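Justification of resources, computational component.

The compute hours requested in this renewal are based largely on the per-chain cost of generating structure records like the one below. Each record pairs the submitted sequence with a full C-alpha cell output. That output is archived, and it is also reused by downstream analysis tasks.
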Amino acid sequence: MRREAQAEWAQPTARLQSQFGPDTFRFIGLDGNLDQGWDDERYEKLWRYNLHYFDDLNAEAASRRIGWHEKLIERWIRDNPPGHGTGWEPYPTSLRIVNWIKWALADNRLSELAIESLAMQARWLSKRLEFHLLGNHLLANAKALIFAGMFFRGTEADAWFTKGCKVLRSQISEQILPDGGHFELSTMYHALVLEDILDLINLIQTFPQIRNTDSQILMAVLPERAQAMRKWLAVMSHPDGGIGFFNDAAFGIAPSLEDLNGYAGRIGLGRQQPPSGTVSLPDSGYIRVDSRPCVALIDVARIGPDYLPGHAHADTLSFELSVHAKRLLVNSGTSVYGSGVERIRQRGTAAHNTVVVAGENSSEVWSGFRVARRAFPFELKLEERYASTIVTCSHDGYKRLRGQPVHQRTIEFRSASAIIFDSVTGPHPAEARFHFHPEWTVVAVDDGTRGTAHLSHGKFVTWHVVHGEPKLEESSYHPEFGATIVSTCLKVKLLSGKSAVRFTW
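The structure output for this chain reads:
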C-alpha cells in the first residue's frame, strides 16, 4: 500500500526530452521506435536500456506528455511480463522504479495496475542486487530499494528500505572519496551519482514521518557528501559550466553543474562559491589551475579502482585547457559504448592530450570495459611561484615495453601562456598530442613549428613547438553519444626523448 507524503516533493533536475511521440524515442543520439517491441535487436543494448529507464517522465516539459507517459507505462506492464527481457535486468529496473516514483511524487497518477507492478519490480530487484558489478550499478540498486521502501508502507517495504540503506551506507564510504570525487573518476558518472544523492535527500525530506535509525544516519551523511561532491564537480568543470572529459564522459547524459546546484538549492543545501586559483584533489588525482583567462584541468590520477576499471580511458597525464572562457584543448570525449573498434580507439591514449609511446596505450584498454596493465602516476609536484604555477608528474604505464620507459610531464602556467614539457626515457618513438576544440581554426605558419588557433569572433591563441617535430592532422571530437565532429590535432614527435610546446594568449 502506498504511503502518504507529508511534505512537498521538490522539483528534481530535468533530463533532456527523449520521447517524441507515443512510441518514438531518441537515446544516445539515435532515433527509434517500438514497432518491433521493447527488445528490438536493431538497436544496441544501451539504447534498449534507455528505453526501459523511463527518463522522459521527469524530463524537460514532461507535463505536456502526460498522456503519452500514462499509456507507455501501461504498455510496458502489458508487454514485459515479470522476469523477461532487458527491462527486468537489475539496472534498468532500478532506474525505472525511481522514475515512476518521482513521477508519482510530482502529482501524476499511477494506476492501480502500475502500483502493483512497481511493488513487483521492487520485490524482484531486492533479490538481484548487482554485487557482481558494484560501482554505480549497486548504488542505483540501493537507491531504488530506498525509494520503494519509502513510497510503500508495510513490513515488506520496511525490509526494502532497510536493505537499501545498508548497501547505500557501505557504498557511500567506498565510492565517494574524501575529496568528494566518485571513485570511478568519470566526471559524467560523478554527476549522475551526485544526482542520486540529492534525490535521496529530497525523498527523506518528503517523508519526514519516517524517523528511524536508518533515515537519521542517511540525513547525517548525505548532505555533507553532496556538498563535497558539488565542490569536486565545480573544480572539474570548465568556465562554460560543462564537465571536463576524463574517462567516460559526454554531455547530455548527466545533469549539468548548474542544474545540480539549482536542485541542491531547492532542497535546502545552499550556494557554493566557485573554485578559484589552484585546487588539488588529492584523493581522486586531479588538479585545476585557474589563472584567468586560462583554466586547466590536469589528470594526475590512477585510472580508477583496481577492481572496477570499466569506465577508464588511457588518459594518464592528459589535460584540458580553456582560454577566454572557451575550450581550447580537449580530450576527445565518448560517443559509443559496446565493444567495437571505435570504442577502444576513443579510450586509447592517442585520443587524449598526452604522450603515446611506440604506438601503444599508457594503460591496456581492451574490449568495451576492460583494462589489463595500467599506468600509475608518481612523483607529483605542485609549485606555486610568484608569477607561475608548475605541475610535474610521471607515470609508469609503458614499463611493459623494452627499456621500461617512463613518461614525465611538466606544465608551467603563466598569466599569458602555458608551456608543456614532455620527456620519455628509453629507445622508443613517442609523440605528444594536443587536440583542439573544433570551434578553433588551427593553422601552421613559417616552417610549421608555429601557428595560430582562431575563434570566429576574433580571439586567438598562438602555439610554438619549441622542441620537437610538429604535424597538424585531422582528428575527431565526441561531445555526446552518437556525435562525431571533425577537429584538429597537433602531433609533436619527441626528439631525443623530449618535446616542449608553448601556447600564448
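Residues 85 and 489 are 43 Å apart (CA to CA). The radius of gyration is 24 Å.
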